[in-house]
Amino acid sequence: MTDSIAAVSLHGVTKRFGEDVVAVDDVDLEIRDGEFFSLLGPSGCGKTTTLRMIAGLEFPTDGSIEIYGEEMGISPPNKRPVNTVFQSYALFPHMNVEDNIGFGLRMQKIDPAEIRTKVGEAIELVQMTGMEKRRPNALSGGQQQRVALARALVNRPKVLLLDEPLGALDLKLRQTMQLELKDIQSEVGISFVYVTHDQEEALTMSDRIAVMNEGRMEQVGRSEDIYDSPGSLFVAGFVGDMCFLTAEVVEAGAVRLSGGEIVRARTSDAAGTSVTLALRPEMLHLYAEASEAPSGRNAVKGSIARSVFNGGTMFYEVDIGAGGSFDVRVENKPSMRRWDMGDSVVVDFHPEAATALAQ
Amino acid sequence: MTLHQGAVARPWVERILAINGWFVFAFLYLPIMVVVVFSFSGSSNVGIWGGFSLRWYDQMLGNQQLMNALKNSIVIALWSTVIATVLGTAAALSLDRYRRWVGRGAFDGLLYLPIIIPDVTMAVMLLLWFTQTGLVPLGRTSITLAHIAFNISFVAIVVRARLAHMDPEMEDAAADLYAGRWQAFRRVTLPLILPGVLGGALLALTLSLDDVVITSFVQGPGATTLPVYVFGLIRRSVTPEINAVSTFMIAISMVLVLGSLGFQRRSEKDD
Ligand SMILES: Nc1ncnc2c1ncn2[C@@H]1O[C@H](COP(=O)(O)OP(=O)(O)OP(=O)(O)O)[C@@H](O)[C@H]1O
Ligand SMILES: [Mg+2]
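Above: query sequence and adenosine-5'-triphosphate SMILES. Below: predicted holo structure tokens.
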């Protein structure tokens, strides 16, 4: 990552609707030049509102927004070097594909010959060749999505804003489009700000992710950081599968589970603090005896309470008595040892795989 | 568009419904058929067939008063339609798009008043207003103003219905794609609500051409419109000329209705 000027920066941005709706609450954010940045959060957390403020479709109640160092103030959307792919695509139904894509260029009074070339290139980029004359209502969801993307990209904005662009597509198409979008982003090299409530999608596509909750930024970081070291209970619960155990910090790097077992974990709170221990099911391993488990890690005794076969993976719930239960996921392969209900097992995990989070 | 798959109706239910349909149809259109047929009758007696003749149409065209009334009707209808369409569309847009102006709620309620209150009341109000203020002499101008007054409401209702199911993100998208306010309206909003605007305009045109009550109150001694003139004719004497005039008016209405159906069809196709 270069040290260049930020593509978009938000300083203390707050957006209120009326007296008591605070859609975005005192947000500071820096989106870097050329990165694929995702805003991830549950429905109603303020993702769209944040995006609309960057686009100029909404203005902050408080705080300021800069795009490539330029203070935006209340400059209208048509004066900003950004374009948007809307959640509902918002294609103009009375114009064909070509005219939709060329709309922005026509509004900027670009020379018609140049418009034709650029529109042609954009159509090629999103693989819509041959459908130039079709109206949006004669296109499938995926095709409309491509047109919406082309219509925004053809203007070569400095930043492209995408509001859940794949939300309306079925799973298969969504996965294909995720990869395509990522390819297109690296091809054109502009910063993408991508809104989604799908954590898997965010992890797959993003260079960095901001996890939002109730108008605030919970955590901002690289996909790996968000997944491997969630900074809050909310992030831990929202991104990926997680199993939670209540615990109490004994000393730096060690916690006591409710059942009394002491395990080593990543802690940041003082001794005596009640915490929740968060563990990824796929980072836990099962052994019959503690002696089989690798030394220098954590080993907690328990018994199999439930098992669910899920095709690629096998999922076990391991009861550890008063301490609660672990969720363990094991990849399905021929060498895999199968456990039956009631089997005594030892759950093994690396201290780095357990994060103690303040409640 | 969605296809509704209702339960399969039993045959006799279906038959009764079909028969009912034909009854309604006959009830509505038989009188019209009678008028149309007898407008081509050569007899001077309204109800007696006297062989095919265009005699009454000839007489109609030769009737100077009637032709004057027709001309007034057309001029008044056109002016009131154009002005009411512009004002009604503007009213609909401001109500739909700008939610926070002072007096919006009152305006919203009052806009539909002309549709709700009886024509006579409206007519008396307008007549009093014209005579009390003395700003406009009674005549073509006062009729036109009166027609604009009630047509604005109808246009606004039709345009608002259209606006209500227009995605507000359309305008956001236009603004995002470098369109200024005027361009966004001209290139995106207007084309999208055009079927509603034209539908409203046709409705206004029809209502203006049809109006008797309000026009007869505010017309003054000078000018009159076709329907008011015909109403006067009937009171004096019924000649088959009335049939010819009626047929002529039906023809105009048919053209307008077909036109509005066409726009509706188009607007449905766009969605
Ligand atoms: N124009 C508005 N007027 C009043 N409240 C609004 C308005 N727009 C958004 N809100 C509120 O602000 C909050 C954030 O909305 P926003 O649309 O940003 O959520 P989101 O994260 O995009 O959700 P989703 O994933 O469902 O699209 C919500 O509580 C919403 O009800
Ligand atoms: Mg949203």
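The mean pLDDT of chain B is 86.
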